[in-house]
UniProtKB/TrEMBL annotation:
Residues 22-486 form the Aldehyde dehydrogenase domain. Belongs to the aldehyde dehydrogenase family. Pfam families: Aldedh (PF00171). Its EC number is 1.2.1.27. It comes from the Bacteria. This is methylmalonate-semialdehyde dehydrogenase (CoA acylating).
């Protein structure tokens, strides 16, 4: 199902968005968009031609001339309207997302909602894009800063959050006065396109938001294009590193949020029921296809006795199509993803980990062709094992052991990734020690997936991130704007000339 194919008339084609118009691509390369629960072909997505990429960027460049001058209040009002439209169409958006991505309908609504929060934050741009002023820094001299847009910016988004992550990107870029070229995942672009339709309906002018589709060639074209000033990326470490290393030498600003191996420390004093529920939800929700999923639980001391109860908790989760009621774990995105996860489970067994719960080849009546992997639990996992070192991106929870909190912290800090981490404890002292000593960007205390709300910045670190600034919150305002510092002195007729001054000082 991953092969590129020629389009047929039986299935709808996903359009490009260029200059305010949804247009049919002239490409000869296409890919099926497949329902991962049923293998039904939902649509075909084009791999845009070089000319189409250039047209999208040219449209954004031309629109920037007027958009950058649009009053900040007018920009904010567009996003006030946009958040209303997203709310009104929440059910439809979630249904599209579930069909093409596989996650459950409630989780799909959560995907849209977390993006909606960023749209709401974008509507407060009047309080966000503020400069600084110092009056009379020297005799009659004022200094102030302007936060001005960069120009054409671009975003490259992954398959696992086809609503939330595009909504992390283009609203904040556009509301700060930039124009945007978006490349969604070719695996599930349909909900992204519906969100773009609503964005135009909200009042985003022609050319301010453009969408192109494709694979490696289109990614490279974005990295190389001289008229693109900044790139925001979320996806795998391999592709993110490529994007960063290719785009940075061209003078672009680049932020890449990449892979993870998120650990949660479980202290023996933690509330057992709440902790087991949190681990099961964070480890197996969205079929483990979250960059902030808990994929390793470090059991400290007597918490190591909780493994059987965690396994029983995992067994209660219902596997099935995301559209079915009561389903907890939907399919992974593709046949290739399913085969990769199953292969890593086999490797975990070979490496000596204890397979406490095997999720391979689950029985899902009515969806025998779906890409299903059930909740899987490995105990006695150690560094050096492939299942510990690699991001599995499936519903596989690895359990490691530690004698003390210090040993657990040392284990986490030795891992190269730094996206998210958590601790479960009722001890304030343990929680404070953890938050101070852990070398990870986003920390949860009795919160399994500590993705910050949009008033704060997404702060993954170390091997999980390239670039200094995060994709939303205060940091992204700095990413999408150039600070211009102005030093000004005004003279009137009463000003006494002090003659020629050849020093650097302002007097």
């Amino acid at each position: 199902m991953d092969a590129k194919v020629k389009p047929t008339t039986q299935v709808a084609t996903v359009k490009l968005l260029i200059g305010g118009e949804f247009v049919e691509s002239k490409t000869t390369e296409w890919r099926d968009v497949v329902n991962p629960a049923t293998q039904e072909v939902l649509a075909r997505v084009p791999f845009a031609t070089p000319a189409e990429v250039d047209a999208a960027v040219a449209s954004a460049k031309d629109a920037f001339k007027t958009w950058k001058k649009t009053p900040i209040g007018a920009r904010a009002r567009i996003f006030l309207k946009y958040q209303q439209l997203i709310r009104e169409n929440m059910g439809e958006l979630a249904a599209i997302l579930t069909a093409e991505q596989g996650k459950t309908l409630p989780d799909a609504e959560g995907d849209v909602f977390r993006g909606l929060e960023v749209v709401e934050h974008a509507a407060s741009i009047g309080n966000l894009q503020l400069g600084e002023l110092a009056n009379n820094v020297a005799n009659g001299v004022d200094t102030y800063t302007l936060l001005q847009p960069l120009g054409v910016c671009a975003g490259i988004t992954p398959f696992n959050f086809p609503a939330m992550i595009p909504l992390w990107m283009f609203p904040m870029a556009i509301v700060t006065g930039n124009t945007f070229v978006l490349k969604p995942s070719e695996q599930d672009p349909m909900v992204t396109m519906r969100l773009c339709e609503l964005a135009l309906q909200a009042g985003i002018p022609a050319g301010v938001l453009n969408v192109i589709h494709g694979g490696e060639a289109v990614v490279n074209a974005i990295c190389d294009h001289k008229d693109i000033k900044a790139i925001s990326f979320v996806g795998s470490t391999k592709v993110g590193t490529h994007v960063y290393n290719r785009a940075i030498p061209t003078g672009k600003r680049v932020q890449c949020m990449m892979g993870a191996k998120n650990h949660a420390i479980v202290m023996p004093d933690a509330n057992k029921e709440q902790t087991l529920n949190a681990l099961a939800g964070a480890g197996f929700g969205a079929a483990g296809q979250r960059c902030m999923a808990v994929s390793v639980a470090v059991l400290v001391g007597d918490a190591q006795k909780w493994v059987p109860e965690l396994v029983e908790k995992a067994k209660t989760l219902k596997i099935g199509a995301g559209t079915d009621k009561g389903v907890d774990v939907g399919p992974v995105i593709s046949c290739a993803a399913r085969d990769r996860v199953n292969g890593l489970i086999e490797r975990g067994i070979a490496d000596g980990a204890t397979l406490a719960l095997d999720g391979r080849k689950p029985s899902v009546p009515g969806y025998e062709t779906g890409n299903f992997v059930g909740p899987t639990v490995f105990a006695d996992v150690k560094p050096g094992m492939v299942i510990y070192e690699q991001e599995i991106f499936g519903p596989v929870l690895c359990l490691a052991n530690a004698a003390t909190i210090d040993e657990a912290i040392e284990l986490i800090n030795a891992n190269p990734n730094g996206n998210g981490t958590a601790i479960f404890t009722q001890s304030g002292a343990a929680a404070r020690k953890f938050q101070e000593e852990i070398d990870v960007g986003q920390v949860g205390i009795n919160v399994p997936i500590p993705v910050p709300v949009p008033m704060f910045s997404f702060t993954g670190s170390r091997a999980s991130k390239l670039g200094d600034l995060g994709p939303y919150g205060k940091q992204v305002i700095m990413f999408y704007t150039q600070t211009k510092t102005v030093t000004a002195r005004w003279f009137d007729d009463s000003t006494v000339s002090q003659g020629v001054n050849t020093t650097i000082s302002l007097k």
